[in-house]
From TrEMBL:
Signal peptide: none annotated. The keyword Transport does not apply. It comes from the Eukaryota. Keywords: Membrane, Transmembrane, Transmembrane helix. This is Uncharacterized protein. It comes from Drosophila kikkawai (Fruit fly).
Length: 226
């Protein structure tokens, strides 16, 4: 039984770890744009690390409870119900706050880019050269404000991707995946709460049936005829 539980836990842990790393590693090292937004990177990594820890804990508790169910006659489920309720509350508020940090860091960086677009040509030109992008929303940003498109925006042809759009294309999917991961985590916790609740209800019904059995004992008919 123990070997089976360890094997199942290893499979689940591997899947969770692979999913999280598949998100974090490309996000962290896949583009130079992320190095310009250290707060964004830190917030995203912190969020997905917290979500993965919750999934690890849920998996461990579930497999542990299954392995101990026979030893405790399923009564261990009673202890897991308040623990799950606490974890659901913690998951919702903790991941909500961390997702809020991701969104705020993203919005702050976009506002910072817009500010540099107007006030710091040196920073902006260096950013365009480094990221291979042009303008805030593409070359049209220069044209809309009657500014000349700089020569480094041709490499050798005109670069059409704006720096703001590049950052948006990197961070926006992370926001969507993060929200989806929070919903999935809460759904798993709700399912486990339902799972343990059903077990406890069945145990209570079984105890009630044992203490108050139906006694349908038929009384023998008295033969009054003699």
């Amino acid at each position: 039984m123990g070997a089976s539980v360890v094997k199942k836990a290893s499979v689940v842990y591997g899947l969770v770890l692979a999913t999280v790393l598949r998100i974090i590693i490309p996000f962290r090292v896949g583009s130079n744009a992320l190095n310009e937004c250290t707060n964004c990177t830190a917030a995203v990594v912190t969020y997905f690390s917290a979500a993965s820890r919750v999934l690890f804990i849920l998996t461990t508790l579930f497999l542990l409870s299954i392995s101990l169910a026979d030893l405790t006659a399923d009564w261990i489920s009673v202890a897991y119900i308040p623990l799950l309720i606490y974890m659901m509350s913690w998951t919702y508020y903790s991941l909500f706050e961390q997702m809020k940090n991701v969104e705020e860091s993203y919005e702050g960086f976009m506002n910072e880019l817009a500010h540099y677009w107007w006030s710091n040509d040196t920073y902006w030109f260096n950013l365009e050269k480094k990221l291979q992008c042009c303008g805030l929303g593409g070359p049209r940003t220069y044209m809309e404000y009657l500014r000349k498109v700089p020569g480094h925006c041709y490499n050798p042809q005109l670069i059409t991707l704006g720096c703001g759009q590049m950052v948006h294309d990197l961070l926006d999917p992370m926001l969507r995946i993060g929200r989806l991961m929070r919903i999935i985590t809460l759904a798993i916790e709700l399912y486990l709460l339902y799972f343990y609740g059903v077990i406890v209800c069945k145990k209570l019904a079984s105890l009630i049936a044992e203490r108050h059995p139906n006694k349908n004992v038929s009384k023998p008919l008295l033969n009054k005829s003699r």
